[in-house]
Amino acid sequence: MAPPEKKVIIKKHPLVIRWAHWINFPVLGIMIWSGLMIYWANDIYRIGWGDKTVLKFFPDSFYSALNLDGRLSDGMALHFFLMWFFFLNGFIYVLYTIISGEWRLLVPNRRSFKEVWQVVLHDLHIIKYEPPSAKYNAAQKIAYTSIIIMGFGSLLTGLSIYKPVQFGWLCAMLGGYEWARIEHFVLTIGYVLFFLVHIIQVIIHGWNNFQAMITGFEIKKGKPVPTPVEVDKPAEEKPANKQQ
Amino acid sequence: MKKKELKEEEITGGSIKRKTLVSFSVFFVLAGLGIGGWVWLNKQDTSDGTLKPLRKVLNVNEKVNNAFFSDNHLVKEYPKSKAEKDVRVNGDVGMGEDYKFENWKLTINRHPESMSPDSVLYLTINDVRSLPYKGIIFDFKCIEGWSQVTNWGGVKFSDFLARYHLGTHSGRAPDPNHPEDLYKYVGLMTPDSAYYVGVDMKSMMHPQTILAYEMNDSVLPVDQGYPVRLIIPIKYGIKSIKRIGYIYFSDTRPKDYWFERGYDYDAAL
Fold this sequence. Notes:
heterodimer, A: mainly alpha, Fumarate Reductase Cytochrome B subunit, 10 helices, 64% helix, globular, disordered C terminus, B: alpha+beta, Sulfite Oxidase, Chain A, domain 2, five-stranded mixed β-sheet, five-stranded antiparallel β-sheet
């Protein structure tokens, strides 16, 4: 009888990171939704100049489509409930990433900033060359590290508009109350844009890549690696080899 | 720098299937719990305008905030040149247009709302004005999200309590050596009782909390709360009640208009 077929798996995402990822998904989603309920009460941001408005945040149809209008108190209650989960989950993720050494696969280095353009051009099918990638390529390293820094930014800007007197020093550091509110808003728009690109990339890169965020491993493509030759050698030679 | 690489492992197709099944089962169970939790939350009864579990969390948040609260955290003050001339008017509850201002007096109960006649004190605007003047120009913040630098004048609420021996169980002037003698809350209402707020005593005793009778160095306009309003810079504007008719003291939370409509009680900044 033939021995069972062997395959090689690549252990990609540790358990803690998978949990943090999937907890963050609904938490950040509802944080954004409730944040929009709060923003609705004073929705003054727009892109434009003088009297000309190119993009208003947001049109009335947007609010009614997402059931956001007239719900300031609902938004605040939800926001100040989920903020604890957002903070704790992020804290555990960062702590784990540092302690486990996982950050080495994540944090970009000088080369990443050179390679990132090659990754973008490759992904857009403009060049054939694909820059090297350990766990993440240069663009992923920069994106995933940025999103963590953005999370930290949301925490600080959020805290400074939540308690601008008790955290007056923080609020002042961020440019004052009005600026902190703008920064908090811009970061949120950043998450939404990240999310769109992230979803498109996940769809493009297929099932094996996606399921790794649930199972933790990817199945290595191609034929299984042939059994190493050394195993066939007489067993007693091995220790001797090691001592050389 | 040490290089970290992904580990590889050789396993059978069968155990890949098993591992995948386990992971996805856990994933779907958790997703189900998450969705179930959300549905459960939204089915809960409301307590003062917000879902009960969320109300509980708001109350816990207030305890956390109070633990960190410090009187030393003052609101930033601005020069007169920064003060807005066109001051925004927000909210007209309790500001009935047919109010007879000649009947106005400040009615104060030294104790909780259940008034016994001998604990009631009536004051005129001159009684308020007789105290040392305190002006403040600060960034007034509305819970809606806007803010405006505005200029107010009046008297410190702490001076007011000291002068008229208010806010204590004993009926003496507040004494920093006997904090237990202070009532925990102050309740304030418009003359028609349509708008009402409750504020914790610590915040009322804050050195920047004033009973204001001036705005931009002139008499308070009617739509800004003539003859006297509260200006409490360490809270959202919803607590800065206009046209104060009644003041009383209590050890339990006085009723509060916006609290009843789903907001947190403290509205602290």
